[in-house]
């Protein structure tokens, strides 16, 4: 356990922050959450008291002016990510930004440039990538146990359609299933294959009841070598959170691929001609591991496993997916 701590501030009282990121950071080896801000002081004070956070601010500007804060976590609605990342960078704060990092690749390029100009670290909060089970999966693939990869299929769906006031259903805020959950199988395929897709084809259901955001989307990403990711994502369908990696000699299956319970280590299955085996994985908090990887970069200069350039590449894929869905055509990357 290191004595040095990265001092975090949180911009906003979003559910993901309260339920997962703040508690995970608080049990990390390297981090402490010292302040939280909301647009109203009362809400910030209530959340601070609930989570034992020392300081509460009634504006984001006040938190950014606090010289005792080293880094900020931004769980604001998607359309605010660019503005507050740049403002945080200009205040000298390192930035962990909730996914998707931006509304498009151009915004993310601006954010990366601002952070580089100010000499601060930027990372996108895809916590699942920090869980050791994905390193274990890459080792299994490298060993040849499932042969050559022929395809990947991912699904991330849930149903919250009844809550019409949800920010996920506001077009100008960056609502829609691709932004909210489609980014998970997209990042997973890019991470597992270690390369970028060459083209995207999407079909989506844009709901007039939900400000015409994509409430369900199904897609195909083409990678080199004839490999593809097929995936679907939705916010008005039965819940799934799965990933399958198909090889010539076997496959790897996750029943809970992206979101697991805190301190749970969801196992995955390897199926070959030898049979099916469950691979036991460590019971760790991937939010804590994310905070530690970020802090080691800030404090000790360790390279980030997924730097800002990865976020730009990912947003280019999302841009292509959204264009394909809206225009009903294949989009080359």
Describe this structure in words.
Strand 2 (31-37), helix 2 and strand 3 form a beta-alpha-beta unit. Strands 14-13-12-11-7-10-9-8-15 form a nine-stranded mixed sheet. A six-stranded parallel sheet has the order 3-2-1-4-5-6, sandwiched between helices. Helices cover 35% and strands 28% of the residues. It is built from nine helices and 15 strands. The protein folds into two domains: 6-125, Rossmann fold (3-Layer(aba) Sandwich); 130-288 and 314-332, Dihydrodipicolinate Reductase, domain 2 (2-Layer Sandwich). It has helices spanning 15-26, 41-51, 60-64, 81-90, 105-118, 132-143, 177-193, 286-300, 308-327; strands at 6-11, 31-37, 55-57, 71-74, 94-97, 122-124, 149-159, 199-207, 213-222, 228-234, 236-247, 250-254, 268-272, 275-279, 331-332. With 333 residues, it is of the alpha/beta class. The longest helix is centred in the last third of the chain and has 20 residues, at 308-327. The model has no long low-confidence stretch (mean pLDDT 96).
């Amino acid at each position: 356990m290191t004595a040095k701590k990265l001092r975090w501030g949180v911009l906003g009282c979003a559910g993901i922050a309260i339920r997962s990121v703040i508690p995970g950071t608080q049990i990390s080896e390297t981090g402490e959450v010292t302040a939280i801000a909301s647009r109203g002081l009362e809400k910030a004070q209530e959340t601070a008291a609930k989570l034992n956070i020392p300081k509460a601010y009634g504006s984001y500007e006040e938190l950014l002016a606090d010289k005792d804060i080293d880094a900020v976590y931004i769980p604001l609605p998607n359309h605010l990510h660019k503005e507050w990342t740049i403002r945080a960078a200009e205040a000298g704060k390192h930035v962990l930004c909730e996914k998707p990092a931006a509304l498009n690749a151009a915004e993310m390029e601006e954010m990366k440039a601002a952070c580089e100009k100010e000499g601060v670290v930027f990372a996108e909060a895809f916590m699942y990538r920090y869980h050791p089970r994905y390193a274990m999966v890459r080792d299994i693939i490298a060993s040849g146990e499932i042969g050559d990869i022929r395809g990947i299929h991912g699904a991330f769906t849930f149903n919250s359609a009844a809550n019409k006031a949800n920010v996920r259903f506001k077009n100008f805020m960056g609502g829609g299933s691709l932004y909210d959950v489609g980014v998970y199988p997209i990042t997973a395929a890019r991470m597992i294959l270690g390369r970028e897709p060459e083209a995207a084809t999407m079909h989506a259901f844009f709901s007039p009841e939900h400000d015409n955001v994509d409430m369900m989307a199904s897609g195909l990403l083409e990678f080199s070598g004839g490999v593809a990711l097929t995936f679907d994502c939705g916010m008005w369908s039965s819940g799934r959170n799965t990933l399958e990696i198909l090889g010539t000699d076997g496959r790897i299956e996750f029943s809970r691929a992206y979101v697991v319970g805190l301190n749970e280590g969801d196992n995955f299955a390897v199926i070959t001609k030898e049979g099916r085996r469950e691979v036991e994985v460590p019971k760790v908090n991937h939010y804590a591991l994310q905070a530690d990887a970020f802090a080691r970069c800030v404090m000790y200069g360790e390279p980030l496993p997924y730097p800002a350039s990865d976020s730009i590449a990912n947003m280019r894929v999302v841009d292509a997916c959204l264009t394909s869905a809206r225009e009903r055509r294949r989009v080359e990357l």
